[in-house]
Amino acid sequence: VDGDHFEIISVYGQQFACIVPTIARRHKPTDSLSETTTMDIKNVFSSWNTTDCLIWSAGWWNYKLCTGKEISQYHEDKGSALVTTSLGTFTRDFDWTQFYDHGTLCDVTGKPRSTEVRFVCRRDLPFPTILDVTEVLTCSYVVRVAAADLCTISALEPQDDLKPNELVCSPSLSDEDYSKFQQEERDFQKTIRTLPTRRRAFQDNVLKSRRSYRVSSKD
After folding, report:
1. Is the same domain home to 118 and 38?
2. How far is CA 199 from CA 184, 188, 191, 208, 213, in A?
3. Do 83 and 184 reside in the same domain of the chain?
4. How confident is the model at residue 83 (pLDDT cuts 50, 70, 90)?
5. In a domain, 123, yes or no
6. Angle at 29 between CA 27 and CA 32, to 5 degrees
7. Lowest model confidence (mean pLDDT) among 4-8, 51-55, 130-134, 191-195
8. Which segment, 78-92, 106-120, 203-217, is predicted with the most confidence on average?
9. Within this chain, do residues 70 and 130 fall inside the same structural domain, yes or no?
10. What CATH number is associated with residue 82?
């Protein structure tokens, strides 16, 4: 890459010069923004009814999140929880994420289960709702919680999706080829300018030919 452009060669051997598009960059959150976001989320939590835990069902398992306290999964039969597994108790928060550790020991890894709760903005959800639960690693989970109240936090406002930038390429010419191209372009422009005159001359020739034919036919 040289400056704001680079050159590539097609499979047919044609060389092209391409312009590097301007890429919009998103700013990384600063420490002060992170602290502000954490406090803002805590303020939103205070407006929620923390006595009501969030419940989310996914087939066999149900998930229960008591914000800032604990999260668990359980299987329910006829209104009674038969199997309950702790996915962690609240340990810390950072930005728009809470961490829950020291859950029930995992029979695969032998380590306590842990969960990361991420908060997202959803203007169509007036009340806090669990969107989904994903086991990203064995016995390690990510829970997404959304609510319209969270949209009041600037860091959680949805950002416009970045659209792909177009890569503009054109054939790369040598100085000699470029001079030829310029001459051909000038010749072409001259041809364009003389077209009306040439068209009229052609029409006149056709009319003359018709008149000559009529005269010879009468004779």
Report:
1. yes
2. 22, 16, 12, 14, 21
3. no
4. confident
5. yes
6. 135
7. 191-195
8. 106-120
9. yes
10. 2.70.130.10
Number of domains in the chain: 2
Task: Give CA–CA dist 194/188, Å, rounded.
Answer: 10
Structure tokens at 147: 């609510």
Task: Kindly compute the dihedral angle of the four CA atoms of residues 184, 185, 186, 191, in this order, to the nearest 10 degrees.
Answer: 90
Distances, alpha carbon 118 to alpha carbons 38, 113, 115, 218, in Å: 12, 17, 10, 98
Task: Spell out where the chain has E strands.
Answer: 5-9, 15-19, 54-58, 61-66, 70-77, 80-94, 97-101, 114-121, 129-137, 140-147, 168-171
Give the residue with greater pLDDT, 64 vs 179. 64
Rounded-to-integer distance, Cα 5 and Cα 151, Å: 40
Q: Rounded to 5 degrees, what are φ and ψ at 165?
A: -85, 140
What is the percent of the chain where pLDDT is above 90? 25
Closest to 143 in 3D by CA, of 195, 91, 65: 65
Say if residue 161's pLDDT is above 80: no
pLDDT at 1: 47
Q: Is residue 21 part of a domain?
A: no
Angle at 135 between CA 130 and CA 140, to 5 degrees: 105
Whether residue 42 is contained in a domain is answered as yes
Compute the mean pLDDT over every residue in the chain, rounded to the nearest whole number: 79
130 — pLDDT class (breaks 50, 70, 90): very high
